[in-house]
Every structure is written in C-alpha cells, then in structure tokens.
Specification:
Length: 308
C-alpha cells in the first residue's frame, strides 16, 4: 500500500487589518492591551483620513474585534496576560510591564498611592511588600468610563461600544500582579495624580501623597513614621500640601495637618493653616493616630490627643 503523504500545515498569515491594529497599539510602546484598546484602534483605522476604509462592505462591529484578536494571537503578536487572563493581552514584541505599568495600562482610572507613593517619591525608606493603589468607587468609575467613551467615540459613533459589547471597564487588578501583592483602596473622592515621565505609571501627586498620610495613616507606615516624614519633608512641599488639604482634606485631616505644621514644624504665620482651627472640636475624642487609644498628652489649640 502506498504511504500517504501528510499535507504541510499552512502557516496562518497576519491580516492587513490585524497588522494595522498592531501598528496602532504598539506606537505608544504599550506592553498590554485590552479589548477596548483594540476597538479604539479599529475605529481610528476606519476613520483614518489616508483612506484605510476597511469596513466598506459592513460596519465596524464585534466580529472585527474578535477576528483581529484571534489573528494576532495566532500569529504570535499577542498572548493572554497570565495575571489578568481574559480580555487583557500582552504585546509580545514589547516585553513585560512592571506591576505599576500593567495596572495603568489595564485600569484607566486609579493611581499608585499611600506607602508605595511615599517610597517612589523618596519620602520613605520603607519598601512596602504590597503595591498600594487607589481606585474610584464603582459608581464614580462607571461615570468616568461613560464620559471617556463619549470622548473616544463621539456621535455618530457613540453607540459603537454598546453595539460591539466592548465597553471601557475600570478593571480591578488581581490580588497578585507581576509577583507583587496588591492592596486596593476605593474612594468616592479620588485624588490628584500625574503620569511618571517615560512610563505609563500614574502616581499620586506630592500634595495628594501627604494628604493620604493623614486620611489613612494605616496604609502609610503608621502615624509615628508619618510624623518623621512630615518633619523631614513637609516644609519642602508646603504649597502643594496646603493646596490639596485646603481643597480636599476632611475635617480630621485638616486638624492633623494643622497640628503637624503649626506645633511640630512651627509654621504659625500661615493664615490658611490657622483657618483649619475651625475644624477643631472641643470636648471631642479626636486622636492624631487613629490606630492607638486616646492619650492624655493633648493639644489644647487643635483639640487633639497626641497619642503617638
């Protein structure tokens, strides 16, 4: 019997559309992309003034997103990210991303905060095991996502995310990201951040970092450590600290900041700091360190137990 010859396996070729999408997503040096990023790239190609009109026979839809992702995986341009899994893909030609950058590329709203921000900014010599991240509360994140989709897909394309089922989602990172434990804080009042030059990482501003120390001392190394940081660095960044706490600080954050700047650093002439005295409460049981019990050492001026 004649031996049957097996036919050679035909190599899968990268489609023109997939190649165009890949060019768009790697242009900003992104190591990770989401399905939403793929949809944005397809929309950009479709609207490109150079005449790329790739969807003349049928409008851009969910099938195009699926086909492009499938082709880019088959041609070894993308691979599912091992930490995020579904709907997040590594761009294999770009190498891996750090935990901070992976978070920023996948989750559009949120930033590195608390002790992680303190360490990144040189305010603390402690190296937190967990990566501290602040995200907007779910209701706030949904509103921000709706606003962003409106900017990404203005009329008459505003129905595209709904029609394709590919919407912008503020994805919560996994419990461990790139080998690092992740600690997430959600807030209805997200603070200010900036993008670190040359990276995708979003980092709390210096004023926000000082504000967060007083709002959540437990996530910033404890109040004793915070007092040392304020003694060593607060005067350097005083304008930014006062601006953020004046605008966004809670009453107790303003009292704690007032005590540290007034009685510890001796900055008694600033009218804005003295204005925070209006938030001091006589007869209350406010403490400088919320993790410790009330102590008899007391600031009469700021009506605050100095329990550190």
């Amino acid at each position: 019997m004649a031996e049957r010859l097996s036919s050679p396996i035909r190599a899968i070729k990268r489609t023109r559309l997939a190649a165009s999408v890949l060019d768009v997503v790697i242009a900003p040096q992104q190591a990770l992309v989401t399905r939403y990023a793929i949809l944005k790239a397809l929309h950009r190609i479709d609207q490109d003034a150079t005449g790329h009109k790739l969807f003349r026979k049928e409008p851009l839809g969910k099938i195009h997103v699926q086909r492009v992702i499938g082709n880019l995986i088959a041609t070894k341009a993308l691979a599912s990210d091992p930490d995020y899994g579904r709907n997040v893909y590594r761009v294999l030609s770009m190498g891996d991303a750090t935990a901070e950058e992976a978070f920023a590329l996948v989750t559009p709203f949120g930033y590195v905060s608390h002790l992680s921000a303190m360490q990144r900014r040189g305010l603390s010599d402690r190296h937190p095991v967990a990566l501290h991240l602040t995200l907007p509360a779910d209701t706030v994140a949904r509103r921000m996502a709706t606003e962003q989709m409106g900017m990404d897909f203005p009329p008459p394309f505003d129905r595209l995310p709904v029609e394709t089922g590919v919407r912008l989602v503020n994805m919560v990172p996994p419990a461990k990201l790139r080998g690092r434990a992740v600690e997430v804080t959600k807030t209805a009042h997200p603070g200010t951040w900036l993008t670190v030059r040359g990276t995708a990482t979003r980092l709390a501003t210096i004023g926000q970092t000082f504000h967060d120390m007083l709002d959540r001392p437990d996530l910033c190394g404890g109040m004793a450590h915070i007092c040392d940081v304020w003694r060593n660095h607060a005067q350097t960044y005083l304008p930014e600290i006062i601006r953020v706490i004046e605008a966004d600080g809670s009453p107790i954050a303003k009292v704690r900041a007032g005590y540290l700047l007034d009685e510890v650093l001796g900055l008694k002439e600033d009218a804005r700091i003295q204005g925070w005295l209006a938030h001091a409460q006589r007869g209350g049981s406010r403490v400088l360190d919320p993790s410790q019990p009330f102590a008899p050492t007391y600031s009469e001026k700021w009506m605050l137990s100095i329990n550190v």
